[in-house]
Design a protein that fits this description.
The protein has 13 helices and 20 strands. The protein is an alpha/beta fold. Helix 6 links the parallel strand 8 and strand 9.
């Protein structure tokens, strides 16, 4: 079995967490990245076994406008800092994946700078999509080009060009040899050229047998990207939406339907989609939940439904984060770990407990999913031999399940046993329990 099939991810946006300036002046490196070693210790204490760290490489602003793919962002430090941090993670049994921003570059990338200077005579004029020297843009370049999301700050690479592909593949080889990374999260994978991703899968598999490719995909049929020739996994935005709205709307049918729908796509229990409740692009889960007591059942589902669970830095402490005036800055704050750990925190205790349970119960990695009970306010399912039950209403819920045997509740310590082939018990409202065979 591959390491990522049993992983629990922790997601760090380093420019935000470490309080880097919004804009990069490309001055001398400021060695902020070593501060993350304390967060690695925290990750280990919480049961996380993998780190998604990104974006990391030199950019003009938010990190996804890459200007140098082979140099750590100067606001974080230098390449030795990244090499040292990943080595520290590996020494502590934690795998590391980085952002691969291959759909577009920043305007300061060497190929785009050459295009601006040499125009029609540039050796890199075919590196970008639909360059039109009869056009113009808000930067008064004297030409236009395709971009990502309507932002000319992010000119779109032409992944059909052999030179572009070779440069990016050589970059990945450099990242593996220089930093010993374990995988990549492909930014904007839903608009990347499929042949490029297939070739990348073949390359990375030759570099490291268990190298993991995760694609950022919002909508669509996930099996278009997740298959034996392209990506191992994608970001499960469908489940992300279902997890919070299924509680806000008191509608567990939405969550159960999402599981069924993905199984109909051929994405079964062991497809291991990347499951999350918030990240650097969406509001924090504690902000989205109308009833904060739902933090427990939401995270129990995160850790027990089929998928690879991931927690975004700070959300294990139950912090808020709301988009303000169209900016993501409040979703990517600088945090003091020492201050966060200075007092007891119920949310953190929940995450630590779930991390401990997940590490011990292989049925939560590979166990077959079977629905056992479903109403708008209560939900029960099996993962192998483990029973999971959650509620989202204020009232106590009664479960009557066609199961035999005795079970121990690892969250609350209760014991239950079946009678005449029925397992009957009550669970308080806005609660959850993970039942293992006694």
């Amino acid at each position: 079995m591959a390491w990522y099939e049993e992983a629990v991810f922790y997601h760090i946006y380093p420019l935000g967490l470490l309080g880097a300036p919004e804009m990069n002046d490309h001055g001398q490196p400021v060695h902020r990245l070593p501060e993350l070693k304390a967060w690695v210790d925290h990750m280990k204490d919480c049961g996380f076994t993998a780190l998604y760290l990104g974006p990391c490489f030199s950019s003009g602003s938010h990190g996804y406008d890459t200007e140098d793919y082979r140099r750590l962002d100067e606001r974080l430090g230098d390449n030795e800092d990244l090499k040292d941090l990943i080595g520290y993670c590996h020494d502590n049994g934690i795998r590391v994946i980085l952002d691969g921003v291959f759909n577009h570059t920043g305007r300061g990338f060497f190929a785009f700078s050459d295009l601006k200077y040499n125009r029609e005579n540039s050796s890199y004029k075919n590196w970008y999509c639909n360059v039109n020297f009869w056009g113009n843009n808000e930067y008064n370049d004297g030409f236009s080009y395709d971009n990502w999301g309507g932002h000319n700050l992010l000119p779109k690479l032409n992944l059909y060009d052999p030179g572009v592909r070779q440069y990016l593949f050589d970059t990945v080889r450099f990242w593996v040899s220089e930093f010993d990374i374990d995988g990549l999260r492909l930014d904007a994978a839903d608009v990347l050229e499929h042949g490029f991703m297939c070739e990348l899968r073949s390359l990375t598999g030759s570099l490291k047998e268990d190298f993991w490719l995760l694609g950022e995909v919002i909508h669509g049929e996930y099996n278009r990207w997740v298959n034996d020739s392209m990506l191992h996994s994608v970001t499960n935005y469908a489940m992300h939406k279902a997890l919070y709205s299924g509680h806000n709307d008191h509608n567990y049918f939405e969550i159960a339907h999402t599981v069924r729908r993905q199984r109909q796509m051929g994405l079964g229990d062991n497809t291991h989609l990347y499951t999350f409740v918030d990240n650097h692009d969406v509001e924090r889960i504690m902000t989205k939940l109308r009833d904060k007591r739902h933090f427990l059942p939401v995270h129990v589902l995160l850790y027990t439904l089929p998928g690879i669970p991931s927690v975004y830095y700070g959300s294990e402490f139950g912090i808020d984060g709301r988009k303000e005036r169209g900016s993501d800055a409040s979703l990517r704050p600088a945090l003091s770990l020492e201050e966060l750990l200075s007092s007891d925190n119920d949310s953190l205790n929940i995450i630590k407990t779930l991390g401990s349970i997940y590490s011990k119960e292989s049925d939560l990695w590979y166990g077959e999913y079977r629905e056992a009970d479903l109403t708008t306010t209560r939900y029960a399912f099996m993962r192998g031999n483990i029973l999971v039950t959650v509620t989202n209403s204020d009232r106590e819920e009664s479960f009557d399940l066609g199961l035999n045997g005795s079970y121990h509740g690892v969250l609350q310590g209760r014991e239950i046993s079946s009678d005449n082939g029925r397992l009957r018990f009550n669970l308080e409202g806005n609660s959850a329990e993970i039942w293992v065979p006694a």
